[in-house]
Amino acid sequence: MREIERLRELSFEMGPIRPPSEGGSFSLLIRVTRNCPWSRCKFCYGILYNRERFQVRSLEEIKRDIDAAKEISDILAALARKFGGFSRVASLIDPYLLYGKNLAELDESELKNFQSIVNVFNWVISGGRTVFLQDADSLILPTEKLVEVLVYLRQAFPGLRRITSYARAKSLARRTLEELRELRAAGLSRLHVGLESGDDEVLKYVDKGVTSQEIILAGRRAKDAGFELSLYWMPGLGGRAMTRQHAVNTAKVLNEVNPDFVRTRRFIPRRGTPLYEEWKSGAFQLLSPHEELREIRMMIENLEITGRVCFDHYINPAYKTGYGYSWLFKQDYEGYKFPDEKPKVLEIIDYGLRLDEALYVRAEDLIDKPL
Ligand code: SF4
Q1: Domain count of the chain?
Q2: Which of 45, 114, 194, 200 is most deeply buried (CB count within 10 A of its CB)?
Q3: How far does residue 274's CA lie from ligand 1's centre (Å)?
């Protein structure tokens, strides 16, 4: 079939990660840079990107990818019309049917082609409304270039409602309010920023490369420009030694910024990172599950925001039950509305503190689990 032949020729490049809240809504993935320009944070070290060198992709490359995604979506729509719906098209997206091989047997270019088709298909059947720009810091691009990408993207897909990206607070702080407004007007609508901690000692210790004041400035400016802002914090990142200041100062920074979403990602020492080595050598002490909960409680007690607090990742506190594992907090992307649901979150933590600590999944248990 002519359409299938053409589908087999179309691919675009995708980076390795996206926030779960973007994966869950099946965003179309458009890679504008490769890897992380910093790769120094001691808890991450760019291992998610295999510590590969940061690269800025050319406008031509990015536009070629957008064109490929557009053509794939047009072909899928044509096939859906021909066969009576996308559920029928789903059965065509099969490695054996496309290449006569199992998924595990595909070569690099076949795999890239297959993943591109799957990404576009999932995106189309979930409404084709959202795009996530990869990789770790799209705001490092010159404003004019990013605006050109956004305009091109919206011309290709006029039905888009949301375009989102990761941004380092440092890069965000370097943008003027006018530049951010320009990006917002061009269609970039939501930013995901790793705050990790609001405490300067913790930030310095983990080599985040940014201060709490820069994060406040960046966050406020993003809000002023009209962005929807998600800030991520990492319970346990200050270890036992800095738990109190980590909790209290994180709440302070969040209160100053008042982001739309506070997303919680518990600290897990990952192999290949400097903090893993420090933990192994005894220089860094992980919090126990109850200590983590007390730290989260301290942060929440001090939190005075009007956004939502989320625990939308499986690494957050969970305990063993007779049937498997149960997560203490709900895992959805909308979380708990503050201030209304703050008492509820505190009650959940108090319930968690009454459970036997031995029932909990410890940070150490998650070291080799995928992110
Ligand atoms: S900026 Fe983000 S991706 Fe880069 S090293 Fe730090 S945490 Fe990792």
Answers
A1: 2
A2: 194
A3: 13
Pocket lining for ligand 1, CB < 6 angstroms: 36, 38-41, 44-46, 136, 168, 194
The 10s digit of each residue's pLDDT in 280-336 is 999 999 999 999 999 999 999 999 999 999 999 999 999 999 889 999 999 999 999
Is residue 133 in a domain? no
Question: 230 and 349: one domain?
Answer: yes
- From ligand 1's centre to the CA of 74, what distance in Å? 35
Give the pairing of strands 33-34 and 55-56. Answer: antiparallel
Task: Assess whether 184 and 320 both reside in one domain.
Answer: yes
Question: Whole domain around residue 242: which residue ranges?
Answer: 167-371
261 & 328 share domain: yes
Q: How confident is the model over 224-280, as pLDDT tens digits?
A: 999 999 999 999 999 999 999 999 999 999 999 999 999 999 999 999 999 999 999
Q: Do residues 79 and 206 both lie within one domain?
A: no
3-state per-residue secondary structure call for 5-23: HHHCCCCCCCCCCCCHHHH
Domain annotation covers residue 162:
no
For the chain, strand residue ranges (E) read 28-31, 33-34, 55-56, 130-134, 162-166, 188-196, 228-233, 261-264, 308-310, 318-321, 324-327, 336-337
Alpha helix locations (H) across 84-211?
A: 86-90, 95-99, 108-125, 143-156, 169-174, 177-186, 200-205
* pLDDT, tens only, 332-363: 999 999 999 999 999 999 999 999 999 999 99
Residues 239 and 312 both lie in one domain: yes
